[in-house]
Amino acid sequence: MPPRARAGSVSGVRRLRATYKSFDPVHVDVLVAALLVVAGVLAAVFSSDAVSLAPRLCGVVGIAAAVAIRRRRPVAAAMVVGVSFVSASALGGAPSKATGVVALAAIVACVYTLGARVAGWRLVAATAVLLASFVTDAFVEQSDLLGSIAFFSIFVLALPLAAGRATRNRARLANELSDRARALERVREAEAQAAVQDERARIARELHDVVAHDVSVMVVQAAAAKRLVERQPDRAEEAIGSIEGTGREALTEMRRLLGVLRRGDEDLALAPQPRLGRVEHLLARTRQAGLRVDLERSGSAAPLPAGVDLAAYRVVQEALANVVRHAGAARATVRLAYEPRAVEVEVLDDGAGGINGAPPGHGLRGLHERVDLYGGDFEAGPGEHGGFRVRARLPVNGGSG
Prior knowledge:
Layout: H1 3-22, H2 25-47, H3 50-65, H4 74-90, H5 97-117, H6 121-141, H7 145-228, H8 233-258, H9 265-270, H10 279-288, E1 292-298, H11 306-327, E2 331-338, E3 342-349, H12 362-373, E4 377-382, E5 388-395
Parallel strand pairs: 1-2
Antiparallel strand pairs: 2-3, 3-5, 4-5
């Protein structure tokens, strides 16, 4: 068969199947039962003698009519089949060759539905009634007893029942798979919502770090410019220029962070991230705010994972922002220690030994969460020789340090 003809036949079968499924199954059963009744009546009339016509007609009509209720009342349909079959045989009107085909089709349909829709003791009882009716018919007919019982038991009872049970199991499996798929979909939606919340929290931490440091520096510089504008206008102009530069950098980084709300993670990953390599630039801006900051390095500055590098940078940024805003310090020291399996960041100041006596705020708690995310250690509190100390140790390459 040519490919086009084969494709056309497949699509035609699919259309017929879709059309069939669009009909109400109960209405289809009624229509099929009506057709079987008409066929049974015609077969009985044209193939029977006058003596056996009435019982044979009643038998085939009863069996065919049971098809109409096989979906709604499968057990009742099986009972109707059994009673009709035995009654017709007892009255001498057992199905002939012609009416037997109609009766056989109706019985197989009812037995199949019985296996597909009924379980437990009701299935056993209905099956027993049908088997008893077949055995009774074989005795009444006094024909090949064992052959008749074997034929009805295997081909009319066992195989349709097995087919119905297989259909029932397949439908149950399909329902279980559908329920499981819906449960997995709900889990995926919950995970997606959790990921969204985590991303929002991450962006909030990033924005806090940016705003806390840069805006604090800008406020200090603006206050200095205000004091110098009349006496030393050149220095005041320099401070205002520094405010402008700091503001531009803060806006640029805020745009990058908020861009994740409009772009994919791939675009965000390609954007330049703050890192320890830019810490000198961060210290320069802090010095412009009037705070003397020293940088001490130890170890070999090897490349760090992007997340660890950013977290270490944010620790320095947030700690210096707190010094500028709260500590009343004149000097701070930033120490970077590179180890084979960890990087340690420490910020010390010579202020009053705390954040104006207040407990750690959201910034330090955010830093703690950020460091915990990478399996590191975080400490924040008064230094051994006064002032305030912030220390973070971040493992590198899965190490614990």
